[in-house]
Amino acid sequence: MIVRSLKEISGTERDVEAPTWRSRRFVLASEKVGFSMHETVMYAGTETHMWYANHIEGVYVIEGEGELVNEETGEKHHLEPGTLYLLDGHEHHTVRPQTDLRTVCVFNPPCTGREVHDENGVYPLITEEA
User: Fold this and answer.
1) 11 contact partners, CB below 8 Å, separation of at least 6
2) Which terminus of the chain has fewer Cβ atoms in its 10 Å neighbourhood, N or C?
3) 103 is in which domain, residue-wise?
4) What does the alpha-carbon distance between residue 130 and residue 128 come to, in Å, rounded to a whole number?
């Protein structure tokens, strides 16, 4: 059994910050459970372009408001607490938080914690050694 608190992982290598977001990684590939789970806050007034070419991501909004844009179709979706979006088709997308947008994200395959978005918004596929 693994029990972890946000307080416990804040300020550690599991706490990753970029100019438009902060992600705290509760579960990573090293736990060997088949997924990773992160609490991510996207900052108000920013814009983040992403494309998870190597991962499926599920995002559940727990706080704040924003907009999700499917860059392939132009379709826009309002984000608010209680909204889930699933990037099951590896969609190019943009998130525009109007307020700080707090989410819980799940990735499959699991992230290692060492991933960084490249110039296309892609996380590389990094695997843990067996």
Assistant:
1) none
2) N
3) 18-108
4) 6
Residue with tokens 């693994």: 2
Q: Please report, for the domain that includes residue 55, its CATH number.
A: 2.60.120.10
Surface-to-core class of residue 82, CB atoms within 10 Å of its CB (0-12 exposed, 13-18 middle, 19+ buried): exposed
Into how many domains does the chain fold? 1
Cis peptide before 109 (omega within 30 of 0): yes
pLDDT on residue 130: 44
pLDDT digits (tens, 9 = 90+) for 16-48: 999 999 999 999 999 999 999 999 999 999 999
Is residue 52 classed as helix, strand or coil in its secondary structure? coil
Q: Report yes or no on 7 lying in a domain.
A: no
Residue 8 host element (H or E):
helix 6-9
Q: Which residue has the tokens 């290598």?
A: 13
85 phi, psi to nearest 5 deg:
-130, 145
